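User: Run a structure prediction on this.
Assistant: Running it now.
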Amino acid sequence: MSDLYAQLVNSPPGKLIAPRVGLPRPTTLKRRALGKTEAAGAVLVGAAPRGRLGKAIEQVLGDLGAPRPQKTDSSVQALVFDATGISDSTELVELQRFFHPNVKRVERSGRVVVLGTPPAGLPARSATAQRALEGFTRSLGKEIGRGIAVQLVYVEAGSEGELESTLRFLLSPRSAYVSGQVIRIGQGVAKAPRPEWEKPLDGCRALVTGASRGIGEAIAETLHRDGAELILLDVPALAEDLAKVAERLEAETIELDITDADAPATIAERLAGGVDLVVHNAGVTRDRTIAKMPEERWSSLMEINLSSEERINDELLHRDLLRRNGRIVCVSSMSGIAGNSGQTNYATSKAGVIGMVEALAPELAKRGATINAVAPGFIETQMTDEMPITIREAGRRMNSMSQGGLPVDVAETIAWLANPASAGVNGNVVRVCGQSLLGA
């Protein structure tokens, strides 16, 4: 279903009326056009004294071909600020000194990226100052408007060489609906060859569950665009839809119920020879308050959304099928972070997915692989089309972008995490929610 409200307030009459009556006017977000190369706009770079990421930033921007603004008052596509040199709360004024004169220069659907050092393990004053960056970026994301996304990236000392994949993603149209996030980059789990940025997954073998429609279909399409060889999985009842997607993307298919006792072994056998990427997307909602929740309704959802993923992971790792520099990416949900009335079972399962990511990240790092999760907010799908209009409109407007996301926004975020160059991104949960005003 199209967003009729956004179309109305962005029409010529709506542009005149909406500001006068205080109605939010969502900015049309710039997304990557299929088959087109991303063009880098002007980027203004700033830094606090003693920042350590200047060389890494300049290398990425140079590879992107991003120009520097020629005038002190010209518009820019993005602001990048190296805050790693801030080691005391009194030095946080460097944020004001850079952003106060420059924040209005950012174009619609632009980007702001602040780079810091993970607070854990730092001296108390340094840790305090670095942790304060989260409050700044999240607040800036809520006040800046105009479809501009704001992120904080903590880069562990010694991991400067792992920045490129993440900074490229956050500065690009691919991150259109990702905002207000805190991303942590550490030591790379494996040394990856320098990727071809237009086809970073060329030669990679990828399994996507729940791939017949909606977000799963968008994930498959995006990974195919990036060069992946796909194996698409869904339940037998959706075999016809799955076959259509697979034919279009030249993919193999697996038709089975992932809750079946023999499902992990069957999947492992189909992945003989190894797999580079596993995307756990399959999931369902079976909403009801806990007071009205029968055990079967609870347990069947938990099997699909969480327990089956655990068993599949266990089987693949036991057989050592996840290749070096491999990836597991899970689809969680904002409900798993903020909770949601009537979704105690669903929110529990999706919070469990986050727990699984956090618990397995160290083990996978030892194997030279990573595991991360995306947590979608309100995404325009067949499921959200069926919501009552009041709930649907609340979901669309209660975020910094004042609109719902698209399945491709989730898919693009997964493609970034799947990139072989994202070897320093492990154990992260990235919300794809336009910076929802609910939850962390």
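The chain has a mean pLDDT of 93.
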